[in-house]
Write a structure and sequence with these properties.
With 178 residues, the chain is mostly helical. It is 83% helix and 0% strand. The N and C termini lie far apart (41 Å). 29% of the residues are buried.
Amino acid sequence: MNIPNMITLGRLIAVPVTVWLILNDFILAAFWLFVAAGISDAVDGYLAKRWDEVTEIGSYLDPIADKALLVSIYITLGAQGYLENWLVITVVFRDVMIVGAVILFQTMVRTLEMSPLFISKVNTVAQITLAAMVLGASGYNIDTGLFMELMIGIVAVTTLISGVSYLVMILNLEDLKS
């Protein structure tokens, strides 16, 4: 296992720890661990490409770690009352829908190779930013006011657009039309 994959694995291991920290009201510690995990998402990809160490296992581990981190954090923040339930449901449903569609396509048709859409990358950054804002604002008692509302709107809109975009992309694959 190379260094980029170990960083990704570290991000995956950080998920239950971050959830535990939130559930036990160690919000500042959860904030800093979440920030480190978010930064590691950029670092592992950069190092893998820079050192020419892109691996097949890394291409599976990275999105699994991303989804595990974001879905777990959003569910936990929702359960603890830090995020509105409708936003948590929207974020989680989008990911479940995409993963379900890919599994269904691969089971019924063939192996599906797809790259993340640009809107999906924007959505991931927005989701990470919002979760970090919620944890940081709660941990440091900062009033984020309208900026928090703006980020919630950005996450909601980019989540919907990216979810629909993936669904349309999968439904328009030639294999499904025949």
